[in-house]
Sequence to fold (337 residues):
Amino acid sequence: MDDILNKIKEFESFALSKLESVNDKKALDAIKIELLSRKGRLSEFYGMVSKVPTEMRPKLGAELNRIKKVIQDKIELTDKAFREVFKKEFFDYTLPVRASFIGHKHPLLQTVDDIITIFHGMGFEVAHGPDVETDYYNFDALNTPEDHPSRDLSDTFYIKKGILLRTHTSPVQIRTMEKKKPPVKIIAPGRCYRSDTPDASHSPVFYQCEGLYVDEGVSFGDLKGTITAFARTMFGKNVKVRFRPHFFPFTEPSVEYDFSCIICGGKGCRVCKYNGWLEISGAGMVDPEVFKTVGYDSEKYTGFAFGMGVDRITMLRYQIDDIRLLYENDVRFIRQF
Ligand code: PHE
Fold:
């Protein structure tokens, strides 16, 4: 029995000195197997327990358990030390980087860019006006009567008397004509505001793109041709354009115009409410009253103007069915474009 206990003691100091001299993780793993695995050195000693006299067994067992614990602790400690060193000294440059998200333009602004490109091709320049307008530019100069319902507090956001958030981009027509003599050929994209309750097709803030072309001899045919050329470039050769009589105080005659449904090709679907057409905005020939206001000779010049719902066009081209998605700025939505 003493013989065995001596051997165990010898094994213990052998094991500890071996662990003391180990200097890398791989060697440590090998020693662990050598000492502690099922076929390892310690197992051999455990195998002897059943061969010594019964009264000696507890002592032998206890001694082996003690040594096992000592070795395990030492291995654990050495392993931890290796991990610390590894953390400090090694930086693995070959690991793949985590993908970062690259920002891009909002889908609405991508659409604005494309609208600008198309109209550039037809000789239109870009003009801008302020979002905060006076009621003169937003209404009066556009020949809108004092009692017109669009002036109502429930439709227009007033900042104070006479100052408001523009309800359309049409005031840019006036600001442009005040500054420049004909020919004038501009588009004016930008934000507009109306006091609407948000739902799938209404947002209190939205985008329009105004168009204005004034020169000698500009006709309603030019308006139709321009809108049709735009529709075909934006949505493809097969899109049809339809003009319906309408009323606006600043154009005469006035129309509303529709594109044949981009989704179903005019056959009828949920998006076009099964009538095959999609309303885009209003347009018409500039009213002589407006020319008078900006000092243009309405005997000499004629012109057309149109509005354009940028949100509508964006929703159609990307098949978005709720306008609110365009203004909530949820990155999970925006990243898709
Ligand atoms: N400003 C009009 C609107 O917001 C659209 C329009 C623009 C109509 C230009 C005629 C000419 O509904």
Q: What stands out?
A: The pocket of phenylalanine is lined by residues 168, 170, 248, 251, 254, 281-284, 305-307 (CB under 6 Å). The longest strand covers residues 205-215. Residues 107-334 form a domain with the BirA Bifunctional Protein; domain 2 fold (CATH 3.30.930.10).
